[in-house]
Amino acid sequence: MWMRHLVEHRRREDEARRARGEPVAMLGVSPGFRDLRWPNPVYPGDTITYATEVIETRRSMSRLEWGIMTARNTGINQRGEPVLSFVSSALVERRQKQSS
Q1: Interatomic CA distance for residues 16 and 25, integer angstroms
Q2: Between residues 44 and 4, which one has the greater pLDDT?
Q3: CB-neighbour burial class of residue 90 (10 A; exposed 0-12, middle 13-18, buried 19+)
Q4: From CA 36, how far away is CA 84, in angstroms rounded?
Q5: Can you give the pLDDT at residue 13?
Q6: Please, which pLDDT band fits residue 30 given cuts at 50, 70 and 90?
Q7: Selecting from 3.10.129.10, 3.50.50.60, 3.40.50.300, 3.30.1490.20, what CATH number does the domain 25-93 have?
Q8: Domain locations in the chain?
Q9: CA-to-CA distance for 6 and 56, rounded, in angstroms?
Q10: pLDDT digits over 45-100, tens only?
Q11: Which of 43, 48, 77, 99 has the smallest C-beta neighbourhood within 10 Å, fewest atoms?
Q12: Cα(58)–Cα(31) distance, integer angstroms
């Protein structure tokens, strides 16, 4: 269920960017994730706040029009306790250089 909420959130964010006239990057497949941790249990009725922080970007050597973005993802419950963390990677369409 949290994945559905994440997808819906990203869709709303993309729509807001388009409405402001900002470019929206196309996402590709994910090469996976690592360091998955569930440090505290999640109970029915808990409210989880989810955050993503980009920690690295680099050019893909095999697909020059794409880059690889690495992010730290965390979930915190309503008591401020961490309940989820992992590091994920995703292919992201690279931006075109702006001409001056």
Answers
A1: 13
A2: 44
A3: middle
A4: 7
A5: 87
A6: confident
A7: 3.10.129.10
A8: 25-93
A9: 21
A10: 999 998 999 999 999 888 888 999 999 999 999 999 999 999 999 898 887 765 55
A11: 99
A12: 14
| 8 A C-beta contact, residue 97 and residue 74 | no
**Contact of 49 with 5, CB cutoff 8 Å:** no
Q: What is the value of pTM for the model shown?
A: 0.71
User: Which residue, among 42, 91, 44, has the nearest Cα to 70 in the 3D structure?
Assistant: 91
Burial 49-84 (b: 16+ CB within 10 A, else e): eeeeeeeeeeeeeeeeebbbbbbebbbbbeeeeebb
The DSSP result for the chain, as a single string, is -HHHHHHHHHHHHHHHHHHTT---PPB----EEEEEE--S---TT---EEEEEEEEEEE-SS-TTEEEEEEEEEEE-TTS-EEEEEEEEEEEEPPPPPP-
